[in-house]
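Can't paste images in this forum, so I'm doing it all in text. The chain is below; anyone willing to post the predicted structure tokens underneath?
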Amino acid sequence: MAPPEPAAFGSRAVEAGSRAMEWQQGIDDLRAATAASVPQMLRRRRVPPAPRLATTAGHLAVAAAGWWFVDRRRDRSRSRVGAARRVRRAFEHLGPTYIKLGQILSAGEGLFPSELVTEFHQCRDRVPAEPLPVVRRTIETELGVPLAAVFRSFDPVPLAAASIAMVHAAELRDGTPVVVKVQRSGIERLVRRDVAVMSWLAELLTGRIPVAALANPAALVEVFAETIVEELDFRLEAQNMLDVAAVLDGLGQRALVVPRPHHRLVTRRVLVMERLSGFAWGDTVAMRAVGVDTAEALRSALRSLLEGAMLAGVFHGDLHGGNLLVAPDGRVVLLDFGITGRLGPTQRLALLRMVVSATANDVPGQVAAMRDLGALPAGVDVPAVIADLGLDRLPIDPAAMDVEELTAEVRALASALLAYGARLPKALMLFVKDMLFLDGALAVMAPDLDILSEIASLVNYFHERHGAAIAQDLGLDPGAAPVIDLAAVRSSLGLTDEIAGFTVQELQERRALLRRRLARHRAGASPT
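Text version of the structure:
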């Protein structure tokens, strides 16, 4: 790849937002109507779409039978891995909707079973591209003109073929390089039918299969439906691009770049946008060869996520390696805005309060914020939650616990959360998923970064740039210094006061040790 000169990148999506765009007419009503359609998709049915249910049940039955007769007889660890592999294969056979679900699961380390997360990493962009005549027909039908009337050139081989759409490189008649996102034919009908089947099956599976505490099948399908339905109308995605660009511009964040959508060539199923390029996220060798500070690029992505979510309530909701590039000047390019996190005023303030409380180790403040975010029931007794979950105890170093103690601790926490009716609302799930992705990227982009000093630096960054706004939002003294309880962080990591720093690489080594211990424990347990 030959990345363009830095001058080719800019916050031009903000400029585009000032133009009158026909596709923007009624966009707020469209977004509201799209959200309102989700309950209808999830409504209880005595009989789901029968043909699709039969196909779905057939593939899942094959997966279950294979596990029962083969993997179940192995040790517990290999049994779980085998089950995850068979589910992934079933999803791939079932097509785009299930592959999209698998992609979301793959980005949920810590939220979903680790075996599923690892296995579903293989689901990324494994959907065959549609033939060019089909793509051409979709574009011409949506734009109402022949392909040649709009594009001087159009690459028949897509840059990417994902579950919802293909992306092709092209040039407009005036020579402007663009990319064209084209929705798969019949995908909307298939998605709505599949979600109806998923919802019906989720009711049967709830309580019958082992899942992470906050990801019971019905809740997962609900969040998935809320997420994927927005991706079915590219006008919403184009507006998401403008909204995120406007947020970045308003916050003075110049370290990220958003492609601009074309002011006319946007419809429900076709999206023409500015073509941007750069180094693949994680290609640190190439980046460092031209002088890019990869740790700073990661910081920029993290700061922008926190700023967008906590201060504006709008953020890119699907950060992963395929949606991020790094320009030669170090700026981060955001791609694919089909999924965007949006927080209402109450949720935004709750998230802000949760993060500020976390830095100060204010446990009651964190639990109350989780309640206001919708992760806990509205009338929940905050002190009781703290006591039942053991949050009033000193932090425990997981590495200092034996496997039985650690397993028991996790199970007790999961049971207590379920008893309180805990769940992950869509916006919070997207935020946590993004944070987990950036946490995972630390090992590649900034392995030598000192975690303790970085936390202090991040808090000071927000105090210096946004302290007045944060104080006003939370009713704090604007002149007070930020409170950072690094002692609690040290304690949770099992560090003594004598240790001056703790690098990402050292943290990864501790995590790897825990994973190996858990794997050995599972391997020694009897199959279930």
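The first strand starts at residue 151 and ends at 154. The longest helix spans residues 451-474.
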